Amino acid sequence: MYYFDPFLDNGKKDGKYEVIYSATDNNGQSATLRFEIAIGNVYVPVIHLLNGESYLASYNKNTLFGFVDFTAKGWIFEKVNDDFALAEIDLSDKVIVTLTAPNGSQMLRFEGKSATNNPESQTKIILDRLGEYKITYTVTDDAGNEGTLNFTFKVKETPENNNPPVNDLPPSGELPSLERVPSLPGCLSSSSLFFLLATLGALIAIRKRYI
Asked: Dihedrals φ, ψ of 84, to 5°?
Protein backbone atom coordinates (compact mmCIF):
# COMPACT_ATOMS: atom_id res chain seq x y z
CA MET A 1 0.00 0.00 0.00
CA TYR A 2 1.19 3.47 -0.91
CA TYR A 3 0.52 6.21 1.63
CA PHE A 4 0.43 9.76 0.29
CA ASP A 5 1.39 12.70 2.48
CA PRO A 6 1.08 16.05 0.63
CA PHE A 7 3.43 17.67 3.12
CA LEU A 8 6.38 15.41 2.30
CA ASP A 9 9.02 16.61 -0.17
CA ASN A 10 7.29 20.03 -0.40
CA GLY A 11 4.44 18.61 -2.39
CA LYS A 12 6.69 17.29 -5.17
CA LYS A 13 4.61 14.13 -5.33
CA ASP A 14 1.51 16.01 -6.44
CA GLY A 15 0.30 15.19 -9.92
CA LYS A 16 -0.93 12.43 -12.20
CA TYR A 17 0.80 9.07 -12.38
CA GLU A 18 0.50 6.08 -14.69
CA VAL A 19 0.14 2.69 -13.05
CA ILE A 20 1.20 -0.29 -15.16
CA TYR A 21 0.41 -3.96 -14.48
CA SER A 22 2.31 -6.51 -16.58
CA ALA A 23 2.20 -10.32 -16.52
CA THR A 24 4.01 -12.96 -18.57
CA ASP A 25 3.14 -16.65 -18.68
CA ASN A 26 5.44 -19.66 -19.15
CA ASN A 27 5.01 -19.48 -22.94
CA GLY A 28 6.34 -15.94 -23.05
CA GLN A 29 2.98 -14.35 -23.78
CA SER A 30 2.40 -11.12 -21.88
CA ALA A 31 -0.41 -8.73 -21.11
CA THR A 32 -0.32 -5.17 -19.85
CA LEU A 33 -2.89 -3.02 -18.06
CA ARG A 34 -2.41 0.72 -17.74
CA PHE A 35 -4.41 3.40 -15.95
CA GLU A 36 -3.86 6.87 -14.56
CA ILE A 37 -4.24 8.01 -10.97
CA ALA A 38 -4.19 11.49 -9.48
CA ILE A 39 -2.26 12.07 -6.29
CA GLY A 40 -2.38 15.15 -4.12
CA ASN A 41 -3.31 18.58 -5.43
CA VAL A 42 -4.42 18.16 -9.04
CA TYR A 43 -7.06 20.87 -8.96
CA VAL A 44 -6.81 23.32 -11.86
CA PRO A 45 -6.81 27.03 -10.88
CA VAL A 46 -9.74 29.13 -12.05
CA ILE A 47 -9.48 32.61 -13.62
CA HIS A 48 -12.44 34.97 -13.53
CA LEU A 49 -12.77 38.17 -15.56
CA LEU A 50 -14.53 41.07 -13.89
CA ASN A 51 -16.78 42.86 -16.39
CA GLY A 52 -15.58 40.48 -19.06
CA GLU A 53 -18.66 41.35 -21.08
CA SER A 54 -16.99 44.67 -21.93
CA TYR A 55 -14.74 42.76 -24.33
CA LEU A 56 -16.33 42.91 -27.76
CA ALA A 57 -16.21 40.34 -30.53
CA SER A 58 -14.92 42.94 -32.99
CA TYR A 59 -13.43 46.43 -32.98
CA ASN A 60 -12.83 49.08 -35.61
CA LYS A 61 -9.27 49.70 -36.71
CA ASN A 62 -7.25 52.16 -34.57
CA THR A 63 -9.47 51.63 -31.51
CA LEU A 64 -7.75 52.33 -28.18
CA PHE A 65 -7.94 49.01 -26.32
CA GLY A 66 -7.71 48.40 -22.56
CA PHE A 67 -7.85 45.34 -20.30
CA VAL A 68 -10.46 44.40 -17.70
CA ASP A 69 -9.71 43.40 -14.14
CA PHE A 70 -9.46 39.74 -13.13
CA THR A 71 -9.09 37.36 -10.18
CA ALA A 72 -7.74 33.82 -9.90
CA LYS A 73 -8.06 31.14 -7.26
CA GLY A 74 -6.51 27.75 -6.57
CA TRP A 75 -6.49 25.11 -3.86
CA ILE A 76 -3.96 23.64 -1.43
CA PHE A 77 -4.04 20.90 1.17
CA GLU A 78 -4.15 21.89 4.81
CA LYS A 79 -3.52 19.49 7.63
CA VAL A 80 -6.41 19.28 10.06
CA ASN A 81 -5.56 17.08 13.02
CA ASP A 82 -4.64 13.75 11.43
CA ASP A 83 -6.46 14.40 8.16
CA PHE A 84 -6.16 16.69 5.15
CA ALA A 85 -8.56 19.33 3.81
CA LEU A 86 -8.62 21.51 0.72
CA ALA A 87 -8.35 25.26 1.25
CA GLU A 88 -8.94 27.97 -1.35
CA ILE A 89 -6.12 30.44 -2.03
CA ASP A 90 -5.82 33.64 -4.07
CA LEU A 91 -3.59 33.33 -7.15
CA SER A 92 -4.40 36.68 -8.77
CA ASP A 93 -0.82 37.91 -8.35
CA LYS A 94 0.45 34.96 -10.41
CA VAL A 95 -1.72 35.52 -13.48
CA ILE A 96 0.20 36.23 -16.69
CA VAL A 97 -1.67 38.16 -19.40
CA THR A 98 -0.52 38.31 -23.02
CA LEU A 99 -1.94 40.02 -26.09
CA THR A 100 -1.04 38.45 -29.42
CA ALA A 101 -1.36 40.30 -32.75
CA PRO A 102 -2.82 38.76 -35.93
CA ASN A 103 0.69 37.98 -37.21
CA GLY A 104 1.52 35.98 -34.06
CA SER A 105 3.76 38.59 -32.44
CA GLN A 106 3.33 39.40 -28.77
CA MET A 107 2.14 42.98 -28.32
CA LEU A 108 2.01 43.03 -24.51
CA ARG A 109 2.76 40.80 -21.53
CA PHE A 110 2.26 41.59 -17.87
CA GLU A 111 1.86 39.79 -14.56
CA GLY A 112 0.20 41.13 -11.48
CA LYS A 113 -2.48 41.27 -8.88
CA SER A 114 -5.06 42.72 -11.23
CA ALA A 115 -5.26 44.52 -14.52
CA THR A 116 -6.47 47.78 -12.99
CA ASN A 117 -3.75 47.86 -10.31
CA ASN A 118 -0.87 46.84 -12.59
CA PRO A 119 0.93 49.82 -14.19
CA GLU A 120 1.97 47.75 -17.22
CA SER A 121 -1.64 46.89 -17.99
CA GLN A 122 -2.58 50.55 -18.01
CA THR A 123 -0.75 50.89 -21.32
CA LYS A 124 -3.41 51.43 -23.95
CA ILE A 125 -2.98 49.41 -27.10
CA ILE A 126 -3.94 50.88 -30.48
CA LEU A 127 -5.46 48.15 -32.60
CA ASP A 128 -3.82 49.22 -35.85
CA ARG A 129 -3.65 45.80 -37.53
CA LEU A 130 -6.54 44.05 -39.21
CA GLY A 131 -7.30 40.46 -38.28
CA GLU A 132 -7.79 38.30 -35.19
CA TYR A 133 -6.19 39.13 -31.83
CA LYS A 134 -5.85 36.78 -28.87
CA ILE A 135 -5.77 37.53 -25.14
CA THR A 136 -4.45 34.71 -22.95
CA TYR A 137 -4.70 34.55 -19.16
CA THR A 138 -2.52 31.86 -17.54
CA VAL A 139 -1.92 30.97 -13.90
CA THR A 140 0.14 28.12 -12.40
CA ASP A 141 0.03 27.03 -8.76
CA ASP A 142 2.88 25.60 -6.68
CA ALA A 143 1.83 22.04 -7.55
CA GLY A 144 2.23 22.76 -11.27
CA ASN A 145 -1.48 22.86 -12.10
CA GLU A 146 -2.16 25.37 -14.87
CA GLY A 147 -5.36 27.26 -15.57
CA THR A 148 -5.85 29.10 -18.86
CA LEU A 149 -8.48 31.45 -20.23
CA ASN A 150 -8.45 32.58 -23.87
CA PHE A 151 -10.39 35.34 -25.58
CA THR A 152 -10.23 36.30 -29.26
CA PHE A 153 -11.58 39.31 -31.14
CA LYS A 154 -11.30 40.72 -34.65
CA VAL A 155 -10.30 44.14 -35.90
CA LYS A 156 -11.94 45.39 -39.08
CA GLU A 157 -11.77 48.49 -41.22
CA THR A 158 -13.57 51.53 -39.81
CA PRO A 159 -16.62 52.42 -41.95
CA GLU A 160 -16.41 55.76 -43.74
CA ASN A 161 -19.61 56.88 -42.02
CA ASN A 162 -19.29 55.48 -38.53
CA ASN A 163 -22.63 57.01 -37.45
CA PRO A 164 -25.65 54.90 -38.35
CA PRO A 165 -28.44 56.81 -40.10
CA VAL A 166 -31.38 57.91 -37.97
CA ASN A 167 -34.55 56.78 -39.71
CA ASP A 168 -38.08 58.15 -39.46
CA LEU A 169 -37.02 61.55 -38.06
CA PRO A 170 -37.28 64.95 -39.81
CA PRO A 171 -34.10 66.97 -40.41
CA SER A 172 -32.44 68.42 -37.27
CA GLY A 173 -34.71 66.31 -35.10
CA GLU A 174 -37.71 68.63 -35.60
CA LEU A 175 -41.19 67.36 -34.97
CA PRO A 176 -43.52 67.46 -37.98
CA SER A 177 -45.74 70.55 -38.15
CA LEU A 178 -49.49 70.25 -38.58
CA GLU A 179 -49.14 71.13 -42.26
CA ARG A 180 -46.87 68.13 -42.78
CA VAL A 181 -49.28 65.67 -41.23
CA PRO A 182 -51.52 64.15 -43.94
CA SER A 183 -55.25 64.00 -43.29
CA LEU A 184 -56.61 60.56 -42.63
CA PRO A 185 -59.41 59.33 -44.90
CA GLY A 186 -62.80 60.46 -43.57
CA CYS A 187 -61.29 63.12 -41.29
CA LEU A 188 -61.42 66.92 -41.58
CA SER A 189 -58.31 69.00 -41.88
CA SER A 190 -57.65 71.72 -39.30
CA SER A 191 -58.72 74.54 -41.69
CA SER A 192 -61.95 72.75 -42.67
CA LEU A 193 -62.79 72.14 -39.04
CA PHE A 194 -62.24 75.84 -38.20
CA PHE A 195 -64.53 76.92 -41.07
CA LEU A 196 -67.26 74.49 -39.96
CA LEU A 197 -67.15 75.70 -36.35
CA ALA A 198 -67.29 79.35 -37.46
CA THR A 199 -70.31 78.66 -39.68
CA LEU A 200 -72.13 76.84 -36.85
CA GLY A 201 -71.41 79.73 -34.52
CA ALA A 202 -72.86 82.25 -36.97
CA LEU A 203 -76.02 80.19 -37.50
CA ILE A 204 -76.55 79.86 -33.74
CA ALA A 205 -76.14 83.65 -33.31
CA ILE A 206 -78.67 84.37 -36.10
CA ARG A 207 -81.19 81.95 -34.60
CA LYS A 208 -80.96 83.56 -31.16
CA ARG A 209 -81.50 86.98 -32.73
CA TYR A 210 -84.83 86.04 -34.29
CA ILE A 211 -86.20 83.99 -31.40
From this structure: -120, 150
Residues 100, 31 share a domain: no
| Same domain flag for 71 and 143 | yes
CATH number assigned to the domain comprising residue 115: 2.60.40.2550
Closest by CA to 132, choosing from 58, 53, 68, is: 58
State the burial class of residue 55 (Cβ atoms within 10 Å of its Cβ: 0-12, 13-18, 19+).
Answer: middle
- Using the 8-state DSSP alphabet, how is residue 179 labeled? G
Domain that holds residue 77: 46-156
> Are both 70 and 139 inside the same structural domain?
yes
The total number of structural domains that make up the chain: 2
Same domain, 95 and 59: yes
pLDDT in single tens digits along all 211 residues of the chain: 455 555 555 445 666 778 888 999 999 899 999 988 777 778 899 999 887 777 889 999 999 888 888 899 999 877 777 777 888 999 999 999 999 999 999 988 888 766 666 666 666 788 999 999 999 999 999 888 899 999 999 999 988 765 544 333 333 333 333 333 334 344 445 555 555 556 666 655 555 555 5
Query: CA–CA separation, 75 vs 85, rounded Å?
Result: 10
35 & 105 share domain: no
